[in-house]
């Protein structure tokens, strides 16, 4: 055994565990995953194969693949109840892997698409993927004052230009797009990456786009407001899209689909169905209360309107570039996970509340979080006060909204 490497790994894991225990979790892209959900990650499904899904060729498939098929059917069944969808595919490995495979499956011969760009909070990988596949794109018109798509201009483009797909993939959003305002023709479709908001949609706090448009794929990574493992999910009610993607995902573009992650995702969906409404409501409540408290500390917090800071798990703090740098440097020093942003949409800091909501932080706890963010925005911060607050806040990290049913050894 390579003892030195193993010892180094043990040291690394011990250090990371300590960091994870003491950190103040305000990153919008990461979340708490419960022991109930983690069971799937260590399941015996690990490493098993299946060739295809709905159109699998059974007599050529791996012996034992029926169990993986049944697992995927369980995911499909619970998604039908939660999202009102007839086809769910969870074979892709992450949100961007999910989009990449859809681009190969659906967009190969497409002339032009409209996309959310980095300037409007769009995922920065989107343009790189499309360019790599030789797909022409242009930005979706965006209203930066109201943090929303400019639907009038968008519908004019859809009417006048040869657009085949709209691709909505926003990493930064305090307001969810209103899909019913988009006027598609019969040969136009939407790929809606809802990685950030899948939990909120599933709990009914944001409108479910699958109920609004038939020519739509709802996709995403499953580890933000939906507190599951790293996995990709594709949902649609459109028969033509199902036909095109079902066999192309695997075995064409993927071989091993990591079914242990799918098992873990299924358990996360059970959580969402059983306790999701209470938890997701707590996320929205936390976003708006923390936004208010941050503003009371003198920070500039973006608002959707006079009374609402956010319809999602995200909070936007507007700062100068210098202050954003100070905030980020101090956050790194004191183990406070947050995200620095510099775009037309936001120069400043993006916070996420999905994890502290899971810890059921109350007003007093959130006031300490707001005070902490204010203190680390100072060029010469009070380090003793910051360390004291960090200790007090991290000690309150006790998970709520959980299912105590540990049955997988």
TrEMBL record:
Record-linked InterPro entries: PyrdxlP-dep_Trfase (IPR015424), PyrdxlP-dep_Trfase_major (IPR015421), PyrdxlP-dep_Trfase_small (IPR015422), Ser_HO-MeTrfase-like (IPR049943), SHMT-like_dom (IPR039429)
One Pfam family hit: SHMT
GO CC, alphabetical: cytoplasm
Serine hydroxymethyltransferase-like domain ranges (all copies): 14-373
Record-linked SUPFAM superfamilies: PLP-dependent transferases (SSF53383)
Position of the signal peptide: none
Keyword annotations of the record: Methyltransferase, Pyridoxal phosphate, Transferase
Gene Ontology biological-process entries: glycine biosynthetic process from serine; methylation; tetrahydrofolate metabolic process
Domain of life (superkingdom): Bacteria
GO molecular function: glycine hydroxymethyltransferase activity; methyltransferase activity; pyridoxal phosphate binding
Keyword field contains Transferase: yes
Cofactor(s) it depends on: pyridoxal 5'-phosphate
UniProt key word Methyltransferase: yes
Similarity-based family: Belongs to the SHMT family.
Protein name per its UniProtKB record: Serine hydroxymethyltransferase
Native organism: Alteracholeplasma palmae (strain ATCC 49389 / J233)
């Amino acid at each position: 055994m390579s003892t030195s490497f193993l010892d180094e790994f043990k040291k690394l894991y011990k250090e990371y565990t300590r960091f994870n225990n003491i950190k103040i979790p305000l990153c919008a892209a990461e979340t708490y995953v419960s022991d109930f959900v983690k069971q799937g990650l260590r399941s015996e499904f690990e490493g098993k194969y299946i060739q295809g899904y709905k159109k699998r060729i059974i007599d050529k498939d791996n012996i034992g693949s029926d169990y993986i098929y049944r697992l995927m059917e369980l995911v499909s069944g619970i998604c039908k109840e939660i999202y009102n969808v007839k086809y769910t595919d969870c074979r892709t490995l992450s949100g961007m892997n999910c989009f990449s495979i859809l681009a190969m499956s659906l967009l190969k011969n497409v002339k032009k698409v409209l996309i959310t760009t980095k300037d409007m909070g769009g995922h920065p990988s989107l343009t790189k993927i499309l360019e790599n596949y030789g797909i022409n794109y242009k930005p979706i018109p965006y209203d930066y004052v109201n943090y929303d798509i400019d639907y009038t201009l968008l519908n004019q483009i859809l009417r006048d230009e040869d657009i085949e797909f709209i691709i909505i993939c926003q990493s930064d959003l305090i307001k969810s797009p209103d899909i019913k305002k988009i006027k598609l023709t019969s040969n136009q479709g939407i790929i809606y990456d809802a990685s950030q908001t899948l939990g909120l949609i599933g709990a009914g706090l944001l409108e479910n786009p699958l109920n609004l448009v038939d020519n739509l794929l709802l996709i995403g990574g499953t580890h933000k407001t939906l507190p599951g493992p790293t996995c990709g999910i594709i949902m649609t009610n459109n028969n033509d899209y199902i036909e095109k993607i079902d066999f192309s995902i695997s075995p064409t573009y993927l071989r091993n689909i990591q079914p242990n992650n799918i098992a873990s995702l299924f358990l996360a969906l059970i959580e969402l169905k059983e306790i999701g409404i209470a938890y997701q409501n707590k996320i929205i409540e936390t976003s708006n209360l923390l936004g208010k408290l941050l503003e009371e500390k003198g920070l500039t917090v973006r608002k959707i309107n006079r009374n609402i800071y956010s319809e999602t798990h995200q909070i936007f703090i507007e700062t100068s570039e210098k202050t954003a740098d100070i905030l980020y440097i101090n956050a790194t020093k004191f183990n406070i996970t947050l995200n620095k942003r510099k775009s037309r949409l936001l120069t400043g800091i993006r916070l996420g509340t999905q994890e502290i909501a899971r810890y059921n932080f109350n007003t007093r706890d959130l006031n300490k979080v707001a005070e902490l963010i204010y203190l680390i925005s100072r060029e010469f911060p009070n380090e003793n006060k910051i360390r004291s607050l960090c200790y007090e806040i991290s000690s309150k990290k006790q998970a709520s909204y959980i299912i105590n049913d540990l049955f997988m050894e």
